[in-house]
Give the backbone structure.
Amino acid sequence: MDSYSITYTPVIAATFLGIGFISLTLLIANLLAPRVRTRGKESIYECGMPTIGQGWSQMNLRYYLYAILFLIFEIESVFLFPWTVVYKGLGPFAFWEMMLFMSMLLFGLVYAWRKGVLTWE
Amino acid sequence: MTNNAASELTLQAVPSWMPAFLVAPMIGGLSLADLIALVVLLLFVLNFVMIEIWMERKVAGHVQLRRGPLHVGPHGSLQSPADVLKLLTKEDLTPVAADPIVFPMAPYLVFVPVFLTFLVIPWGPLVLFGNFVIRPFDLGLVYMVAIPAMQGIGLVMAGWSSGNKYSLLGSARVVAQLISYELPMVIALLGVAMMAESLNLTTIVESQMKQGWNVFLQPIGFLVFFLATMSEMSRAPFDIAVAESEIVGGPFVEYSGMRWGMFYLAEFAAVCLNSALSTALFLGGWELFPGSHALGLGWISDQFGLLFFMGKMIVLVVIIQWARFVLPRLRIDQLMDFAWKFLLPAGFVNFILTAILQVFGFVPFAIGIGLTLALAAVLLATYQARRSPSTVALIRTAPEAVPTSQGLGLPV
């Protein structure tokens, strides 16, 4: 394996370590804790009242427009990361170029704002 | 360039005094020393979380004119271990309506990403250990944005699989909050990357020793990053997603015992993590005070860097805890407005100002800061003027506070 991939192998090891830690703790808790099953304990919590309808009730996911905006901006910012690293060597031209790019982004934000997308109702 | 840098840094991280069998690469280039370092890191996180919970209860106590935990150990300092023992012996309930596969999986997906992100933090330059970091990732900045974002999936899984209306509501709010605050955070990080011309956190810390701390060079970026991460981990005043007084704990309503403890652990580990990241990215990492390397006092930081890093981190942790008890919770629409209409534009301003500083020098940068402040003043003035006069009048003519007895806030 080349040195570049080796840099990231601790991530895999740490993943297993984290999973192992949680499993071990839950196992110990499982051995120590009492287990008395009653119907009341296993019902869904709803302010102490019997549940009305299902837990998976219909709801309005109001954030979907934010999510679309998020996708656009997040992808743009991922493009910007490599640019920031080499930016200083590129000089003023890169600055004006990026200002053009940013102004398009900001125009999108202002447009969404004026359209009322950013208003939570 | 990236390949060379990686190999250099990897070599640099291997100290010379270690016996050969410890540093000999085993499977996948991992050595025994690496594995020991990972276990030490996990133990550090667990212990720091316990100290942090005790600190938070003390801060809460003193803010509210109480004394906090007192009885278990000196000044109540053994309260957290006692709580862990209590949690271990608590019954672990799984409600009948819960999804049998997703429900037990969620705690793993909430804690593991937080722990993984700890790998990237440059703790300090202990001379013996080389740069004291598990591995200096070249893409550290991208890694530290990408990995914690997986936590959102775990929270949604927890909220959905519980089969509870409150937790479902909570998970919907978690998504809305996470996607809104991710953006300002990333935009603020762009400024940091531009200052250091690198995405490697160790390089970023070292560049701050040459140029000055980022908190002075881009104060707007620091504010945006700090507030956005505070919101990312659902800390008060941005804790509408887990608001215990209305949706009784959000996604974790149905969790109990140690399984609930895992969510709690992840939340507090995230506070530690984000304080450490703010320290490394903006507060100069392990440097004692700004400019100490220029004054020839760099050796203090080089010898005892880990202590200074921890000190700055703990100060940030206390600030986060303090904010929880003195600020009222934001409503969900205020929360979204704060992200999209305040933090995001502020992040863009910071980005543009940093770009000006890097290419055109300090004078245009200073002019830009002045213009920004002027613009902010104008916006604030217009906002004040546009507030409906009736509201202002209502506040002005509000009756005096109820007279209190003994100054304790109790009505007579």
